[in-house]
Amino acid sequence: MKDKSRDNNDNTDLQKSTGDKKKVKRKEYEKEMRRLQEKLCALQDWVKETGQRIIIVFEGRDAAGKGGTIKAITERVSPRVFRLVALPAPSDRDKSQIYGQRYIAHFPAAGEVVIYDRSWYNRAGVEYVMGFCTEEQHDRFLELVPAFEKNMIVDNGIIFLKYWLEVSDTEQERRFRARIDDPVRQWKLSPMDLPSRERWYDYSRARDMMLDTTDTEFAPWFIVNSNDKKRARLNLISHLLKQIPYKNIERKKVKLPDRSKKHAYDDVTTMEGRRWIAERY
Predict the structure, then answer these.
(1) For the domain that residue 163 is a member of, what is the CATH number?
(2) Which residues lie below 8 Å from residue 132, measured CB to CB, with a gap of 6+?
(3) Which end of the chain is more exposed for a tag (fewer CB within 10 A), N or C?
């Protein structure tokens, strides 16, 4: 269901909406991120206590900041509760399966939050634009996916959130150039990234078709202005926490026990002469 209050195609407005704001200062960002991450830890306790199941899908433009946002969500919580699913390109075996089967295999059990860094929506985006699926397969996917999400996810009591990170043409180009020039970012350049620059409007049309068809009342798409990565992370996590009716779970007070002196010995001397690494820093 398209939000008439904002035209997501207007990259000029998207650029201005961030350009008019001052950058978040690092101390302010870190302080607010810490506060939000404490709430994510409280959410984690609630998920474990209640056996809740949550699926969060991240999609968006290439270089929109999905990885950094997911890292901000997961860096203070347990990977056994918040599971990240970032699947590689499908193998020949995967291609022989029902489309989406390899994603279903990672659905959450009780007490788990599963985060998809790219998902079954690959068919609506990269597969369609780059010709990895047929027009018929693409159309069939868009026709069936709302029913799939309702019957397989929402009606089974799984909390389901979908985020699309949108970045402007200018900002995407800047980030790609930074990746090309920076040795510690070059690994982020995938074989699909550079063609995505050439096919900007093809991806825009694919995005619009996807949103028009799969933005439903029971599984809506939430759009994130990602021109400023720090603001995007804070805005998204804040929004995410408001979508889930979690409650603070009272933790039992922990008392650190004294070290037992039974069978004590000089366990420092026994480490002398071992293969310690050089302390260069």
Answers:
(1) 3.40.50.300
(2) 126
(3) C
Helix (H) or strand (E) holding 113: strand 112-117
The residue range of the domain holding 165 is: 19-271
The CA-to-CA distance between both ends of the chain, in Å, stands at 55
Measured in whole angstroms, the distance separating CA 61 from the mean position of its chain's CA atoms is: 13
pTM comes to 0.88
**Residue 166 contacts residue 62 (beta carbons within 8 Å):** no
Write out pLDDT tens, residues 99-136: 999 999 999 999 999 999 999 999 999 999 999 999 99
- Number of domains the chain contains: 1
Within a domain: 279 = no
- Cα gap 69→82, rounded to integer Å: 14
| Residues 6+ positions from 220 with CB-CB distance below 8 Å | 1, 162
- Give the integer Cα–Cα distance in Å for 201 and 41: 40
Q: How far apart are CA 15 and CA 167, in angstroms?
A: 8
